[in-house]
Design goal:
This protein has 511 residues and is of the alpha+beta class. Helices cover 29% and strands 19% of the residues.
Length: 511
Amino acid sequence: MKLVGKRYAGFAVCLSLFASLILAVSFFGIKAYTETPEKGDLPKGVADCINDRCIMKIEDRILSADLLDNRENTYRVFPGGTTIEISSFLPIGGIYIKFDRTPPKWVLTVNNEDADICGQYGFLHEFQKIISENAKKLTLYFEQQVSICDIYVFSQGSPPPFVQVWRPPTGRADIMLFSTHSDDDQLFFAGAIPDAVAKGAEMQVCYFTNHWNTHTRPHELLNGLWTCGLDRYPIVGDLPDTVRTMSEKDALLDFNSKGFDYDTILASQVELLRKYKPQIILVHDFKGEYGHGAHILNSHTCREAVVAACDSARFPDSYRQYGVWDTPKTYIHLYWRNAISCDIDTPLEYFGGKTAYQVSQQAFLCHISQLPSRYTQWLLGTEEKPITKSSEFYKYSPKYYGLWRSTVGPDIKKTDFYENIVLYRDQKPDTTSPSNPSSPSSPSSHTSPSSPTSPTTSQPAAHRTAPIFAAAVAAILLSLFILGAIIWILRRKEDKRRPARNVDGAGPKHR
């Protein structure tokens, strides 16, 4: 610091410390910024994820990072009696939990006062809205063992689009889809779900098999349905997914080995029909599309269930509970008789101009584990030759069905499933039949119809750190430039004040 003199040393040191402070603040600021959604990404009134402004503990231990990493393939299993405590610096408006397995009932306590029973419906993705205006402490108590993937805490406001707020599968359904696997609904039945949602039809999706042998496909199933705009929770069957069999006989033998015989499978489908009283049924091709044995078995048992559900002498347990049900219309995929060609390639205002087929294409991308399969090319095409219309799905197109059975007459227009059907929401309440539950309300919209959740937006918004980093670097460079300029100016002043000497050193020479 001799260049500037001792009296300027303190100033230069302070300026250097200021530059260092900018660097430190920028570093920690970037870290915090990447852990929370950017404010500008959310519309006004939409809640913000405030995980970074909370302290989450289990028995005085900080919650594992696995539960905050926004990854559905990481999870932690906790024994019965586990308590999770969450303290927030901001008022809490909601909590969203992704469970790894169907959760037991659990207790949510707010501010050590108000306690509610949660988990009654077994939602794998469960959102709980916090009513209290100044909730800053939550306690989650699990009496039984529980497996959790992720926990999100939100500020007050409506939940952002990626948060799945499900309705329980209760009340009658206008249309019921019997899908064998968790991706078949977006593949061979592509367009059916978004078409139903856009029409305001109450749709119940039922899966013949489950995928509890994996830790990803149950989440993919829900993410796909949510992308289609469906908020009525699906029914997932007890049959475990199995290796692919190429005949109905082999599929049944495999299920038999796991404790499920034909009558057990049939009884469960009859119960579904009697309980939900669908007006329309969709099920797989007689040949199981590409010959999958489980598809063939599902189609067979479903067709028999349609007939059996009308007969009070068959499966008396479900008859006593729900009565009989005669489904008005049953459609078989690719059935050649009474064939219809569904219009799923017309842009839908509900989905912001996307067609029902395109929405299902988007939903299929949620099934990440299945993307390497040949099915992806069937539905989406290739990069060189992408598929944009259902008519381009060359072999097992989801637009073609046949009306296998009808109690309301034949189809004339043959462009959708709803001819001669009045949606339950538009029917007058039936007070003469106690076996028919009251008509459910029309589906509620969980997100903006013009921007249905895609695989890339089904998670919290991406956090952009580049602007902050650039600003930090610019601030540091500016500080160094100012420091250098000050040193240069002060050095010039010192030179002017310092007397010049003669060449021979005889004495000072004044200017």
